[in-house]
Amino acid sequence: MDEFVRLFWCHGPAVHSYLSRRAGHQQADDLLEEVWVRAFRSRDGYDDGLPALAWLYGIARNVLLGHFRSEQSRRTRDSGRRDVGEPDPWDAVDEQLDARRTVSGLTEALATLSGDDREVLLLVAWEQLTPAEAAVVLGIPQGTARSRLHRARNQLRGHLEASESSPRPCPYGSFYSVGDPALEVRDD
Amino acid sequence: MTDPDHYDLDLLQPLGEVAPPAPEVLNRVATNLRACLLQDAASRGAPATSSRQRTRVILPVAAAATAVAAVVAVGISDATHGGHGNGPAAPATMSPTAASLREAILTAFSGTASSISYTHSVFTSAGQKNRVIDVWTSPFEGSVGQSQTRREVVTDDGQTVRDTEMSYVLPAPNAAVPADCNGEIYSPKPPPIRGQSDVQATDGRLVDVEYASRSWSDQPDTCIPVTQSADAAQIRSDIAAGGWTVVGRDDVDGQPAIELNLAGSAEPASADLLWVNAQTFLPIQATANKGRSPGVDGLVTTYRFLSDTPDNQRNLTTAIPAAFRQTATPPGSRPAG
Predict the structure, then answer these.
(1) B92-122: per-residue pLDDT in tens?
(2) Cys-Cys with A68: which of A20, A87, A110, B86 at CB 3.0–4.6 Å?
(3) Option in B8, B11, B66 nearest A43 (CB)
């Protein structure tokens, strides 16, 4: 088996997961081939000092951005509105997460992060990359990746702590919200 | 998580849980990557000059191991010739793509196993074209116990001499030869395959039309040879055996092709050279030279794979001319080979 095909069998599932987390399973099926064909075509430019998986994620990221861009163009065209600039891939991720109805507090917290910070955070959290590898994916200096990760962590933690101490909706009705004295039922 | 880069990020893990890719998705991409590899190897050579003139490209390995875990690149030098089998033999080189190619060809065969294979074989003797055998087989690759139908039309110097339709159940490879196969076989017997002295045979139905005697017969239970020289199933077996070499890229009647030399096959091969389509990896053409069959100087077989449609199935039925009389036994004992 050729080395490149072997490389695919080694990292193909991870690249699919990367795509699936950001664009959904179905889209990942469609985009996976494009990522690998692009990787094959650009293999001569590969720097052998780089981790292969990070290099592949970088290509997957570009394929995703192209996909989101064309999706946005299509939506803009369909709605008759003007283009509103660079797409935010998080919109698609958010849709995926909403679809699965997972921990809403976390998705809200992630949504408050800047796109750049969030990307580093998710590469480290989901793809299990080191900040140095995330830097390769994004084409940024390692120091920048570390500072973005640090900032994202702090912001995420802060958001979660704040949301934990804020009033939560009562499951039994709006009058019984916990911690809101104005809505406490009075006996008088 | 003790890794300082990942500590406290466990809470994000559930959000990132996704289903793994389906095997068929991975297989599809892997197959297309193999096609890319092979096309890349081919495209690094000079383009074919015309569909008639073949361009052979030798494939020595440059083995460019790049860091993507040593991605294979293939360096190619050109050599053009006016037709295969002429001039000095090009040095055949086993390239790393041969392993992928084998896998791609076998995958392509598996993908088309249920189709109808059509082979057009031209036998030449002393440079004269004197015999053509057209064979349709459905399904071209059946499993043991599966029914298979085959039709063979033999033409000598443009005149149809025999048209036979055979239906049988595919026997196990080690199945005993039926007793009636020990005697003379009336059904068309293919030229012996080099290195394969005993042709696998089984009992089945034979509808046999003999043009010389203007007669035909319907034998419900007679001996039928299952294997056929250079037929698609035999070529598949040759490819699976391995040991063959990649000669280079070529162009066969406008189709981008990869030329293989089967001479070094691990098992005696049914042809000398084989061309497979560079995109579908199915065989296009095979050639065998003198020594393959007694009395035959050369054999050129072309392959097509037809979808299993009612129209294509009609090719499997013998045409019995109205004026021909039916006989109880096969009228001609002369084997087709």
Answers:
(1) 333 445 677 788 888 888 888 788 989 888 8
(2) A87
(3) B66
Asked if B18 and A21 come within 8 Å (Cβ–Cβ), the reply is yes
Residues contacting residue B238 through CB under 8 Å, at least 6 positions apart: B244, B262, B265, B267, B269, B270, B271, B274
Partner-chain residue, chosen from B20, B40, B66, that has the shortest CB–CB distance to A13: B20
Domains belonging to chain A, first-starting first, are 1-101 (1.10.1740), 103-164 (1.10.10.10)
CA A87/CA A65 separation, integer angstroms:
8
Per-residue tokens: A111: 């949504």
Residue B136: alpha-carbon gap to chain centroid: 13
Single out the residue of A26, A4, A53 nearest to residue B30, CA to CA.
Answer: A4
B25 and A32 within 8 Å at the Cβ level: the answer is yes
Residue B277 one-letter amino acid: N
C-alpha angle with apex B104: A15 to A11, nearest 5 degrees? 15
Indicate yes or no: pTM above 0.80.
no
Domains of chain B: 96-337 (2.50.20)
Among B16, B37, B103, whose Cβ lies nearest the Cβ of A4? B37
Helix (H) or strand (E) holding B259: strand B255-261
Continuous segment of H or E residues that includes residue B163? strand B159-169
CA–CA separation, B107 and B281 (whole Å) = 9
The answer to whether B187 touches B206, Cβ cutoff 8 Å, is: yes
Is B29 near chain A, with CB under 8 Å? yes
- Shortest distance between the Cα of B34 and any Cα of chain A, in A, equals 7
| Residue pLDDT, tens place only, A19-57 | 998 988 889 998 999 999 999 888 888 887 788 889 999
